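Bench notes, afternoon.
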Amino acid sequence: MKRAFEIVFCDDHLVVINKIAKVLVQPSPKKEKITLTYLLQKEIGRKVFPCHRLDRETTGLIIYAKNSSIQEEIMYEFKKGEIKKAYSAFAKGSLAKKKGVLEGYIIDREGKYFKEKPKLAKTFYRVEKELAGFSLLKLEPQTGRTNQLRIQLAKIGHPILGERKYAFGRDFKVNFRRLALHAYFLSFFHPISKKRINLRIDLASDMQDFLKKWSPTRAKTRGFP
């Protein structure tokens, strides 16, 4: 069985891991026992506290604290907008504007059910590659709304490949076996040293393999740094 994570950063206060797909961070209402948090605690032999979440199918970087006070400090950084995040995604089709901002009020399905009010969401994006039927995007969310990237891309007609919550399977000409979303970059202030920590990882292996299936002659690469 493939390991659910790899440790990218670890000290006396924090652990940052690279999560694989299909693993929950915390138990859902179904009360699953095997979660990312459980597996990490088992490996390092101590209790850990997730500072944010990724969807079950999303891969990439996630921060854990080694005590509740550190968790609160990191979560406060998120609240103040001091933590920078970046994602890679495969999105349906070809976007007319190759660089821009997605901004507007959104609400996820659960929010609608509980009659919450829509909240302002903002994301910077740019197209890094265009292929037949989909595009590789870089996404930099400036707010942290639930399912923000998924909702915003679906709203403009370019849902993330593998999306089944805000799009239908029949909407896609190109299929990916999971939600094609990967958290590849995190930047935050260490709660003790106060130094900024920058972490970057490669694209998830299944997304890399998917890209390799497409001939370079069929892909148009844009010259972004």
